[in-house]
Design goal:
Largest sheet of chain B: 6 strands, mixed
CATH architecture of one domain in chain A: 3-Layer(bba) Sandwich
CATH architecture of one domain in chain B: 2-Layer Sandwich
Helix content of chain A: 25-40%
Mean pLDDT of chain B: 97
Number of helices of chain B: 9
Structural class of chain A: alpha/beta
Shape of chain A: globular
Radius of gyration of chain B: 21 Å
Strand order of the largest sheet of chain B: 10-11-12-9-3-13
Number of strands of chain B: 19
Mean pLDDT of chain A: 97
Number of strands of chain A: 21
Low-confidence stretches of chain A: none
Structural class of chain B: alpha+beta
CATH superfamily of one domain in chain B: Probable tRNA modification gtpase trme, domain 1
Strand content of chain B: 25-35%
CATH topology of one domain in chain B: Gyrase A, domain 2
Oligomer: heterodimer
CATH topology of one domain in chain A: FAD/NAD(P)-binding domain
Number of helices of chain A: 16
Distance between the termini of chain B: 43 Å
Strand content of chain A: 15-25%
CATH class of one domain in chain A: Alpha Beta
Amino acid sequence: MAVKKKYDAIVIGGGHNGLVNGSYLAKAGLDTVILERRHLVGGAAITEELYPGFSFTTFSYALSLLRPEIIHELELTKHGFMPLLMPSTFAPTEDGEYLLLGQDKNENHHEIARHSPHDADAYDAYGHMMEQVVHAIRPLMDSIPPDITSKDPEERARMAAIGSYLADLPPGVLHDMIRLLTGSAADILEDYFESELMQGLHASSGIIGTKVGPRSQGSGLVLLYHSFGEHDGAYGAWAFHKGGNGGFTQVLARAAESFGVEIRLESPVDHVVTKNGRATGVVLEDGTELQAKTVVSAVDPRRTFMDLVDPRELPSDLVDNIRRFKFQGTSAKVNFALDANPTYPGLEGRSDQYRGFVNMGPSLDYLERAYDDAKYGWYSQKPYIDGCIQSNVDPDMAPPGKAVMSCFIQYAPYHLKNGDWDEERDRFGDRVQKTLEGFFPGFSDLVLHREVVTPLDIERVVGLTEGNIFAGEFLAPQMFFFRPAPGWNQYRTPIEGYYQCGSGTHPGGCVMGAPGRFASQQILGDLKKKK
Amino acid sequence: MIRETPFHPRTSVANQTGLWSHWSGYLATDRYQMSDKFEYFAIRNSAAVIDTSPLYKYRIMGSDSERFLAGVLARDIRKCRPGQAHYTVWCDDDGWVVEDGVILRFSDDEFLLTAAEPNMAYLQDLAGRMAVEIVDVSEDYGALALQGPYAREILKQLAPEMEEIGYFHLTPAKVGDAAVTISRTGYTGDLGYEIWVDRDDAVGVWDTLFEVASPYGVIPAGQTALLIARIEAGLVLIDVDFHSSRYAWNDDQRTTPHELGLGWMLRNLESDDRAFIGRSAIERELAEGTSRWRTVGVMVDYEDWNRVYGERSLIPPKDHTPEHGGMMIYDDRLERIGYTPSFVYSPMVQRHVGIARVRPEHAEPGSEVGLEVTIDHRYDVVKANVTLLPFYNPPRKTA
């Protein structure tokens, strides 16, 4: 049988946004192929059995920001969509103190009051403030932003509409929103909480994936971003998908195929073919040429504009902006197969504290000091660790009685001053393990297998430039109107028929799917106009 | 005095919330832990242990027991062979449902009937002079349900004889030293089993079971988790989705098997020569097309749900706590055409769903209906679609 060469649409990259985008295009009737470089789809959202019986979420490890519309529109529940509740959040310390939050509001009140009666009350106030801000900003996140550079009256009207929308918000909510968008996580959290443990627990959402410390301006934006999601209507709540985030992208792949998408694995794209300023297809690394009038890049902006096409075909201001676009990945993963759940002093014999995030960042100072190392070009000697022992929620992840633990590590800057990640890998892994040992004495005795994922590995394996997990930093000048560049924030590119749908476009990273969905709306809208 | 089930020495320790309800005069845990949703997910994702001991249990024995039950139960018990079980209803002379329950058949002339309400006098009166003995053994046995995808893998380690039993089959088995019956039955719509055990052996069976099951993440689940699962499974509940005709005040409160969505129990009635209670009324209902209701699913339109709450600047709730009430259902002219006795946000379907009773002309799957919701003390109508039941039906349930 001859291999098919001609499609309506080609999607480059089988990460979650590529899968979402391809699904929508196929659902609308386009003959669509998704080209994935690796032997499996999912991009940075994969699950792999790296040690017999243990499923590792190598990179991305939890789910919250996925837009609920996608669940329904792509009929994901038919294909096994199953976001499992994480009923607890555990914040241990190195001296045996801890904070264990659960699903009962009043029990949480008493638990926080052990540390600070003030914070027990402030917790509700903080939660309400965050919910109000998230609720207010959601319509902006859940729509394609206007083009701030455009003189088109329609775009100008949309700009004005945003102004009116913001002006209609309760002034307090607007002010809180601006504080979050422009300020530091620490400034906001110190307003609410006096307990170091509470401050540290919440501030960690302000640094994840980003080269900022909790006291850096800009960490407020990251904090807010991580609160946009929901689990079954609970704002800011996270879930473990059945089978890890790789389980989720397998659901997406099944949905895509049900709409008729062809998924081609081990099909790395060399470049996009253009003719007279418009895309006509792609050439694979093996020389195969595939044709399509619509080509969508689901990879990051650097690859979309600098690698897949010849930058000389692009306007120089766009090329400059993409060159300046900050990636500077700062995160790593160290994942463990464990002989059993770790033991926490004082909670021996219990495992209910491990049913959600295990947040090892017990104070603002702890997090800021971890950042200090990164500022000067090295990885944290005592890193922030977001641990998840997913086998406590999903028994399929590890053999009975054993445990698999995902550890998100920060800071681990892509560019090491006077060092090399391949040489540092084991030392870095040891450093992380030593830090874990500080929180969970005896941890190392449980380790059956360890996987160290450096930012360089993220770049090499997934293809994310400089290992940035969001396909580009969450910095104000790289969001909304400017993601990935002013004038090119609406999923189109200067090359007709060539689109972008990765996390480097609005709204951004995390397993969200919104870029893939919005890009499909633009593509289908443009095709309709042409008819 | 409220009674305790044979598992109470263990459930009372496991219940960390202090929340109990009264089920047939017994203490039943509402939720063991602070998160009932986590207990629910154990049912769908690993397995959960549910104490269902408060069910009434009647042992029915004697050479006429099959003949007796063939006349009492609407579903043909003669087709339930020894080693099998039936979910069945029994009706009154007018074809109204008296009750539903599961009956286990141990041998040609020995059965165990479970029921939510007392039925001793009702059954004995019907037995008359037949060679049948009915014994209320409700107190003698504990019943422990193990429900969820890992149920088989766990139980077979304790009782290898259960591995092969099919859906609605049963086997004698041993769990530890205790002689038990294991039936592949349950109220969750998932792969699952129930262990029937002498009350004196109950605690031992609990301990033996958890020894094997705990490493799989198995936890005890309370009533709330069970009730979420049963709505997803489209399983009706007495005093919620229907009422016993024995205690109804008028026919509005009564329902026929067909109206209750249980007409499948009476398939092939023409080739069934039994004279069972309610038969002629049921035949008349079918012949004359007098069924007033159909029991269907309704699934809320998620966009419209977001709209009605969004218009009031509220976060649209997605609450997994079952609502047992009666949200009204309207047609497009706002004429009332039914109601939903059972309603919940389904974590598996990711939609608000309800078991509903609608007029037959509105029962076609896909039909658009309006569901009345109350938001901030004001009525609104949200779009929903009629669907088939169950909402969630994993292949493993019967595989």
